[in-house]
Amino acid sequence: MALEVDHLQLCYRTLRGDVRAVDDVTFTIDDGEIMGLAGESGCGKSTLGNGLVRMDVRMRQLAGRVELDGEELPISDEKAMRSFRFKSVSIVPQYAMSALNPTRRVGKMVSELLKSRGFDYKSALPELERRVKLVGLDADVLKRYPIELSGGMKQRVVMVISTLLNPSLLIADEVTSALDVSTQRAVGEMLLEFRDRKFVKSTMVITHDVSILAQVADTILVMYAGKLAEKASADVVINSPLHPYTQLLISSLPEVGVRHDEHTLVGIPGRPPPLLNPPAGCRFRDRCPFAFDRCAEEPPFMEVKPGHSVACWLRTKGAAPAGGAEPC
Amino acid sequence: MTVVGHEGDLGTDEPVPVDKAPVDSTGEALTAKKRFEFLYFAVRNKKLLIGLSVVVLFALVALLGPLFVKHSMLAYGPPFRPPSAAYWFGTNYFGQDVFAEFVYGLRESLFVGLLGGCGATVIGMTFGFLAGYKGGMIDEALNVLCNVLLTIPGLVLLILIAGFLHHTSAVIEGLLIAGTTWTWAMRAIRAQTFSLVSRDFVGLAKLSGEKSRSIIVREIAPNMSSYLFLVFILLFGGAILVAASFDFLGLGPSNGMSLGIMMEQAADWSALPLHLWWWFVPPGAAITCVVGGLYFANVGLDEVFNPKLREL
Amino acid sequence: MRRYLARKLIIYVVTFFVAATIDWLLPRMVPGNPVSLLLAKMNLQPQTYNATYSLYMKAFGFNRPWWDQYLNFWRALLHGNLGVSIYDFPKPVTSVIADYVLFTLALLIPAILLAYFAGNKVGAMAARRKSLDNTVLPVGYLLTATAYPWLALLLAFLFAAGGIGHFFPISGGFSYGLIPAWNWAFMWSLITHWFLPFLTLFLVAFGGWAIGMRNLIIYELESDYTHYLEALGAPSKLVRRYAYRNAMLPQLTGLALQLGVIVGGAVVTEVTFAYPGLGYLIFQAVGNDDYFLLQGIFMFIIVGVLVANFIIDIIYVLVDPRTRVGISGA
Fold first, then answer.
1. What is the pLDDT of residue A264?
2. How far is C126 from C135, CA to CA, in rounded Å?
3. Which of A136, B90, B115, C99 has a CA positioned 20 to 30 A from the CA of residue A210?
4. 3-state secondary structure (DSSP) of residue B63
5. pLDDT(B5) > 60
6. Which chain C residues contact residue B267 at CB under 8 A?
7. What is the mean predicted confidence (pLDDT) over B87-107?
8. Quick one: pLDDT band at residue A267, thresholds 50, 70, 90?
9. Does the CB of C320 have a partner CB in chain A at under 8 Å?
10. Which has the closest alpha carbon to B240: B277, B286, B282?
């Protein structure tokens, strides 16, 4: 078990109070697993991903525990986290295009970064060059400045840098959203290749683009308004999802590469509830076509079939809807 | 004053709405909310409050001061008097009331600064909008003009002009200052306009056949009004400083009083060896306070307008 | 890189051209001409006046067609001939300037460089430490909000006129009793006369750089590349080093933009301390209606500022790789 997240609660502190962006989240990622984390913009998926690497100054951990390879990950302790970053847990950030220092040659930046973490650049260089070539770039990109690289090249360089120390967990945050469809596929293949070559033990792919998950993910975790909605193997989530939200999310994505940056999903009227003092009960209630009385209570995130968990009263045994409305 | 875009996941830019305001709520409700938010942060921003109160205080002195002036500027009393109940700021070499000079000098300095600041803002806006919106040759030409003026030291150019003009008035002085200090404002506004022109609503206005001028006035300017205000504050403060140097060199209005002229006269008439500090300390201190207050208010307002800079 | 410098050079050529044209045009635009203004002061008899007038008009070339005057002006300018000083007649303007220019350079160069480096260092420190920031920020803003003449008067009063003591001489470039020579007494006299004007220029500029650097570093620390470094566990030492280096670039651009302001400040400061530099000289030229001297100093300052700008451009190219590689990315 590479990653174990147990009842994790993360919040943003704002002037109006705490916004619980990640609310009581429990899941695991196995060794060698690529887990997709999907949901609308604002559902807390990026907060969760970033929180596992580096918490923003405004972020707080309210509860819960994170373990990586059986060791506790002190995510709320900025100093203690430093030694884990890069080495055990690493990230390919959303802003990969601008993640490189514009005034340093790529190789120079990597060497200074490695040295600052107590690693030797010279001995790491052959492997670095090998990996740069592996992702289809010329080794001399290391001698170039970021401005000399195209967006796709920068993305690949950042992926190589982030995984250079073979971390146990890689968070890939919206790695495909700024790319065109063919490059998206290439990046997806890189994620698979990195896993197969054991550059990374387990990967969390955060995206709002479910099509990329169909390509790379073993399992998919769907979040809604800070809560977990559904988790199952990628195949099951895409072909026979159980949560009404997942169903709408999947059906609203008819084609590969179609994205939905807007606040509202096409086909799902309404928008997620505010996360500052969210209403009790199921958070999808207001938008759910199948909502019924029971939804005023919060549904538990329960395993309904082996390897398939869902938080919906419709799917929880012994709680059939009064009206008998059956989705699917 | 940086505009940083960030496509965050949650809670990065705007605080999450408290109530369940629907997306399609009327524009009125939204502006009311924005205004509330602006006030909410404005009254809590120490820099803004301190800066603004200092500026307002001196503005009041300039406005209401004449009511408290007991001695005419032209009345010659006992010379070299230190500050006292009769002469609040003492008297100068000639026995004139320094407080009277201060009040009228402050008026003139604020007037010249305001004129220079407004003028420079207007020129900077006009050229900045034109360059940023039209692009192409107009942009190139205005850029060259701007760079040329940026390179020529403003005060030295003013000295050259004044050296040949011989007679200046407060209005001419203000306009001259405006004509030499608009350059950086144009650069900043041009850059902001560039980024706005590429946005959807401007494109929409263009498609709907609106005229350039009306697009600039209706779509672009309102969208950067807070930014323009910040630019104006900085230009206002800068103009007061330039005017002080200009007046100090004896190039200011020939028959008037200003804070710079007070310092000039103090320097010319032995205030230093005679230790008449009350003659030149108040005018310079007033300039530092007003300009410093403006700069502080600017920083504070920037934090209020720009959520990224707000301290939690 | 060549493109970048070539573009800059074109701007400088245009600037020189525009400045020279303004310089030529101004005396011809004011009501009356310099000659009549000059003669008005001489209190001449009507006949003598007319004769002198036409003599002067001829001597200065004001009687020729404007284009001829303009070409002549350029011809003279390119030969380094700025005319003769009326006030210090018949000394050429260039040699009058030569007497004063060293003092200005001795004042400006250390003031600009020291304020720039000290301001940047202190600003970077303030961005790191909240306690220091609480002093640096207000003090910095107050210093930039201070008018040069006031600070000059204040320092002169406190440290030269006896407000606190008579530590420094109040005016001049060196003691009048001394003859310029390379000896200790003269050097010491130069230094003591130099210090307060220097301090004035230094303090105002220092405040600006400190604030600028502080704000830039805070901005850089919020940038993506910083966040990426932090996400990879880079220690704050490396993060800050990168932020400082990158913040230096806009500061360098700022230095070029601030040159004009500092030169203006130097004029006022030199006048306050009667420090015999170009600023003091230009002030004397205005006071004495010495138009050729005025025009000459103006041109001279322009050339100086252009040279300084070009030096900064070259440094910029050396420190910012982006100007070197251009936008030739694949």
1. 43
2. 9
3. A136
4. helix
5. no
6. 149, 153, 272
7. 93
8. low
9. yes
10. B286
Residue B28 has pLDDT above 90, yes or no: no
Give me the domains of chain C, ranges plus CATH numbers.
Answer: 2-31+82-329 (1.10.3720.10)
Q: Is C250 exposed, middle or buried (0-12, 13-18, 19+ CB in 10 A)?
A: middle
Residue A99 is predicted with a pLDDT of 92
Interchain contact, A275 vs B23, CB within 8 Å? no
How many angstroms separate the CA atoms of C301 and C299, rounded? 5
Q: Enumerate the domain spans of chain A.
A: 3-98+168-315
Does CATH number 3.40.50.300 belong to domain A3-98+168-315?
yes
Q: What is the mean pLDDT of residues B248-271?
A: 91
- ipTM comes to 0.89
- Who among C141, C162, C257 is closest to B275 (CB)? C162
Contact criterion met (CB < 8 Å) for B166 and C302: no
User: Which ranges of chain C have pLDDT less than 50?
Assistant: 327-330
Beta strand pairing call for A227-233 and A219-224: antiparallel
Q: Report the DSSP beta bridge partners of residue A90.
A: A170
Structure tokens given for A245:
């939200």
> Does the distance separating the beta carbons of B8 and A46 come in below 8 Å?
yes
CB-based contact B15 A14, cutoff 8 Å: yes
Residue A301 predicted with pLDDT over 80: yes
DSSP class of A219 = E
| Residue A143, pLDDT above cutoff 50 | yes
**CA distances for B50 relative to A54, B281, B295, C147, angstroms:** 36, 22, 11, 20
Give residue A324's pLDDT band: very low, low, confident or very high (50, 70, 90).
Answer: very low
Write down the pLDDT at residue B211.
Answer: 83
pTM of the model: 0.85
Do C313 and C259 contact (CB within 8 A), yes or no? Answer: no
Reduced DSSP (H G I as helix, E B as strand, rest coil) percent helix, strand, coil of chain B, to 5: 70, 0, 30
pLDDT score for B309: 60
3-state secondary structure of A169: strand
Q: Per-residue pLDDT for A104 more than 60?
A: yes
Q: What is the pLDDT of residue C225?
A: 94
Q: Which residues partner with A14 through β-bridges? A: A17
Q: Are B211 and B220 in contact (CB under 8 A)?
A: no
Residue to substitute from C228, C246, C324, interface A, most A β-carbons within 10 A = C228
Average pLDDT over every residue of B114-128: 96
pLDDT digits (tens, 9 = 90+) for C142-159: 999 999 999 999 999 999
Domains of chain B and any CATH numbers: 59-309 (1.10.3720.10)
CB of B4 within 8 Å of a chain A CB? The answer is no
CA distance B257 to B171: 13
- How far is C304 from A264, CA to CA, in rounded Å? 60
> Is the predicted pLDDT of residue B251 greater than 50, yes or no?
yes
In percent, how much of chain C has pLDDT > 70? 95
Strand partners, A310: A230, A302
Q: Dihedral of CA C1/C7/C13/C18: which sign?
A: negative
B260 to C141: CB separation less than 8 angstroms, yes or no? no
Exposure string over A168-180, b if 16+ CB within 10 A, otherwise e: bbbbbbbbbbbbe
Number of H helices, E strands in chain C: 13, 0
Q: How many CB atoms lie within 10 A of CB B171?
A: 12
Return the SS3 of A199: coil
Chain B CB contacts of C145 under 8 Å are 237, 241, 287-288, 291-292, 294-295
Residue B216: pLDDT band (50, 70, 90) is: confident
Contact assignment for B11 to A16 by CB distance below 8 Å? no
Compute and round to an integer the Cα radius of gyration of chain A.
20
pLDDT of residue A115: 95
CA nearest A103 in C: which residue? C321
Helix pair C130-144, C184-220: axis angle to 10 deg: 120
Q: How many whole angstroms separate alpha carbon C213 and alpha carbon C201?
A: 18
